Amino acid sequence: MGDVTKVYAGPGIFVWGVSATGAAETDAVTIDLTQGGINFATTTTYFEPTVDQFGSAPVKSIITGITGTITFETPDMDFEKVVKFNPNTDKIVDGTTPTKVKYEVSGLAGQELPRKRAVIKPLGIMDPNRFIYIEACAVKFDLNAGYQLDNNQRMAISAAAYPSTDPDHYGLLYTWGDIAATA
């Protein structure tokens, strides 16, 4: 029988830039304000060979790749965070009045998104068994900066989870639970 104490709900926190022990790095980006929750989903692709004798029905399935996506919206409009994960964003500080600051986002193609380990954890929960660590995560974002009476500005975040190329975690996509657990 299922355990109803393991039915979970509630908001989450996204941290981009965590160490191998799960601690936030000094330049980590923490997003702890979301609207609509945080979703992590994986997508698996398959090669499904067929034989003439069975027509178009596959005879087996072979995994050809697995990736993941993290999606959420945040009303946190702090562009200091965007500068850290988006190579097309620059912070410009006025040369004579340092309180004058602007952020420029270019539309130039060809920039590779930086990858870091990230974690999704439930708000107020300190049990690492409930955390999801994404081994190689690149953050994508789009701005939704409308001015409306009954809605707020927000950034749409869609982070990509890739298999790790780190020799210590080669091929690892994500870890569900305590990242510090060892065999």
UniProtKB/TrEMBL annotation:
Protein name per UniProt: Uncharacterized protein
Species the sequence originates in: Cohnella xylanilytica
